[in-house]
Amino acid sequence: MKLVKLTQETKQDILNHLLKRSPNNYGEFEARVDAIIQEVRAHGDEALFSYTEKFDGAKITAETIRVTKEEIEEAYREVDPSLLDVIRKSLVNIRSYHEKQKKYSWFDTTENGTILGQKITPLGTVGVYVPGGKAVYPSSVLMNVVPAKVAGVGRIVMTTPPGKDGKIPVSTLVAAHEAGTDEIYKVGGAQAIAALAYGTESIPKADKITGPGNIYVALAKRAVYGHVSIDSVAGPSEILVLADDSATPRYVAADLLSQAEHDEMASAILVTTSEELAKEVQKEIEGFLKTLSRAEIIQKSLDQYGFILLADSMEDAIDAVNSIASEHLEIVTRNPFEVMTKIRNAGAIFIGEYSSEPLGDYFAGPNHVLPTNGTAKFFSALSVDDFIKKSSIVYYSKEALEPIHQDIIAFAEAEKLTAHANSIRVRFEK
User: Fold this and answer.
1) Whole-number pLDDT of residue 146
2) Which member of 98, 177, 262, 328 is catalytic?
3) Residue 255 to residues 97, 354, 368: CA-CA distances in angstroms?
4) Among the options 238, 284, 327, 353, which is catalytic?
């Protein structure tokens, strides 16, 4: 990892460098993604089957595209019982956390005959995308399906790419069934996003699409936004550790590497006021790289997007943290709760040296679908709010409208919207 003295100039250089990882900077893929979307939109299932064979090496038909009850039962027979136990424990925590986010309709009334309120309605159909191929992510299944289920979504449809044998990993199927997924389809990539956005003969059109994916999935989600809602256009994973000289270097190094192993474009950053800690963390990283299975990926990630920023003061360090707005932020300082109050921009905040980021990925309960590439400045973690709609409720009696109707007319006429004014005026004609 590169050790850099933190200044306004170096901070801006790093911010500009990190933004190169954004899906918005991969325009060379857009034409390919758009072609896939248009093909699926025009030819439906036929295009899905063709792309699945081309990209995943699996022959899927109308009879096999949907996961059957028998396939799920087989998955339960094959899954490691200890993993199933962990999935169920994690599910309890995730559901409990998200149930606290539930919103309810409300109405306020007055004696003069008005009712104002807000009506909460869950979305009808949600599409959840789960990555596949070489990776298996049952945790992503739980994090996307559970908040939708808690929100009361009527139909939760999951898509995930099959292996060459036409099967879905057993842990993915079991997690989906445990979380309450209604339908599972064997299709991945941009073609799956197009199917969920427009519908095909087999796959229903969704009202919203959530879930992570590769650059093709990210660009496809961005392309179909407007025809359907999406959670976000996610970029590569990232972690920022804010630490002082009280932190344990070995813990800090291990946590940085936990995200760097995701892929070569992942970002791991340490911001610290301690030069001694910085050097010790570098030594620990070198040691870990000799033993970790994904060392090659980690090394490339650290070479490109790994930084140790040495700050003169904790105030400067916190300023850098807020500017970077990382997906995951760990605070490992003498007074982490006080520091936490000064953090404005972070997807998820982990406090203290025993709250490492993987705790949030798998088990604690808060959602691990988080804003990336600095978007934590204006986006939030996936939540129950992402799966509901809010409708305003307005009721006025004649007696309530009469004393204010001239005010409304005056406002409308000031905007030269005479039909608006007339809509009010006709109700009080002599």
Assistant:
1) 98
2) 328
3) 24, 11, 16
4) 327
